[in-house]
Amino acid sequence: MKQIMELWKDEYFKEKGVKYSNHVNKFIEYLIKIEKVDKPKGVTLSDVDDCIGWYAEIGKINYRSSMESHLESVKSYYDYLSETDKSSDIFSNINYENFKEELFSKHNLNEGKPRESFPMESVLEILTCLDDDLKMFYDGNPTDIKRKNLIRAILRIYIKITLIAPAKKNVICNIKFKDFNDFMSLDAFRWIIINGVKINIPNGLKRDIEQVVLFATQNQGNEPQGDMRLFDYIYGKKFSQASINMWFRTFVKAHDIFDLQDAVNTYPIEPIMITAIQAMVNRMANPGLIARICGVKIASIENKYYANREYVIKYEETLDQAINWEITKNEYYTYI
């Protein structure tokens, strides 16, 4: 049974909309944690302070922008409570700007900068959430996929391909059907050529691609052709590379995976590629193999990730096998 502050939260969303729902929900969850969700008169600014400290500690609020978004959300919620005579406004007797600065310093938050790579647990969370979002692909009729789910499907395929073949965005976005093996056969999508390397496709990803291509075929009434770009065909129109970052932001915000800067409407997906590269570097994989699949010069990989390490590629004909072997060692590979 919902308690007082939860019920008021629902009324607030109903009347004011869900613009601030992410952080208001965070605040209510914290009140539940400290057992004040049914004691509105007992909630103070100290609880707001401690709430931000709690979420900073567990990595959900890391930057100034997110702290300010949290405060604006809770402040808006209290504006509503005050307007409807449900509770007094706990922000009414303070210097709001000074309060923000005090919290920023107290909780050692960052001004904010783009991530170069993601923690491995975040990558696994991304994969899990994408699969959960699209569970209907396996439980229902593929022809019932709605537009939002189609966008998530493209995002899922893009991310999984990048994780097994960490190439640049323009390379992944320009994948064509002819880059896959026998794309019109029942045994299609077993492997793909990326930057001249034959990359094996795990069964889960093969299934993902098959399901979405089936949807596109049934929806559009035309079969894919070798020179067609995969994502154009799935999307049903010309696919823009810029869309990936916008879709990625919408997805991570919906699942609260990262601490986002609310002022921007995109979020860089490039760290997915860097994370896959970093995973191989951490195992001291041959930089020549990494450079080959990434499509960059060996010197670039060596200068960025390696120091004073000798390496030799002995057999050119075993490159594909060696690269695939390195990729299968990554933590997320079994999941994919």
Can you give me a brief rundown of this structure?
It is built from 16 helices and 2 strands.
Notes on the protein architecture:
By secondary structure, this protein is an all-alpha fold. The chain has two domains: 4-106; 114-336, Intergrase catalytic core (hpI Integrase, Chain A), CATH 1.10.443. 56% of the residues lie in helices and 2% in strands. It contains 16 helices and two strands. The chain has helices at 4-16, 21-33, 45-57, 64-83, 96-106, 120-133, 136-139, 147-164, 169-173, 203-220, 230-235, 241-255, 270-282, 287-294, 298-305, 319-328; strands at 191-194, 197-200. A two-stranded antiparallel sheet has the order 1-2. A hairpin with a 2-residue loop joins β1 (191-194) and β2. α2 (21-33) packs across α3 (45-57) and α6 packs antiparallel against α8 (147-164). It is elongated. The protein starts with a helix and ends in an 8-residue tail after the last helix. The mean pLDDT is 86.
Q: Which value, in Å, is the CA radius of gyration?
A: 24 Å
CATH superfamily of the largest domain: Intergrase catalytic core
Mean pLDDT: 86
Can you tell me the CATH architecture of the largest domain? Answer: Orthogonal Bundle
| DSSP strand content | under 5%
Low-confidence stretches: none
The global form is: elongated
* Largest sheet geometry: 2 strands, antiparallel
Distance between the terminal alpha carbons, to the nearest Å?
39 Å
Give helix % range: 55-70%
Count of distinct strands: 2
Quaternary structure type: single chain
Q: CATH class of the largest domain, please?
A: Mainly Alpha
Following the backbone from N to C, one meets helices and strands in this order, namely HHHHHHHHHEEHHHHHHH
Question: How many domains make up the coordinates?
Answer: 2
Q: Trace the largest sheet across and list its strands.
A: 1-2
Structural class: mainly alpha
Helices, by number, come to: 16
CATH topology (level 3) name of the largest domain: hpI Integrase, Chain A
